[in-house]
Amino acid sequence: MADPELKIFDYDKAEIGEALGSYQYILTQEMLDAFRASVDDPEAPFPTLGVKHDATAFAMVYDDPIGTVNAGNQVEFFNPPTVGKTIHVTGRIADKYFRRDKPYIVIEATAIDEDGRLLEKLSTYQLKKPDELGKKWHPEQQ
User: Which of 56, 58, 78, 112 is such that its CA lies 20 to 30 A from the CA of 5?
Assistant: First the structure.
């Protein structure tokens, strides 16, 4: 059952520039260690990538019963986060468009630390019609 405070995502009503959820958390040593272990890199500097800032910001505002297909990501890393610092995240719908008659949205999330240092910007490109997946290879299912 959907959270009564969440809006049901409607592609036609979504607006470019629309603010999504904003939140903050403190980066702990345990979070850093878990991320480094998961990527098998003892010096991985950006555990924020594992938090999925974009998806979290979207899910704070919308319930999306249709689902999505991840069509790509673009990540810009600026400054590695510091353990013990508070990270502030903001999200927005950066773009929406049709490609080959299929609806896409771009969700952007920006993370800065408590000192105002820009940590990362993440853009996720999503196909908002997941029932299209596989039709290219299985036209008989159309």
Answer: 112
pTM equals 0.83
Strands 69-77 and 118-127: antiparallel
Range of the domain at 26: 7-134
Residue pLDDT, tens place only, 19-66: 999 999 999 999 999 999 999 999 999 888 778 899 999 999 999 988
Q: Long-range contact list for 31-40, CB < 8 A, 24+ apart?
A: 32/83
Within a domain: 142: no
Give me the number of domains the chain comprises. Answer: 1
The two beta strands, 69-77 and 86-99, are unpaired
What is the side-by-side order of every strand in the sheet holding 19-26?
19-26, 86-99, 102-113, 118-127, 69-77
Separation in Å, CA 74 to CA 24, 112, 122? 22, 17, 6
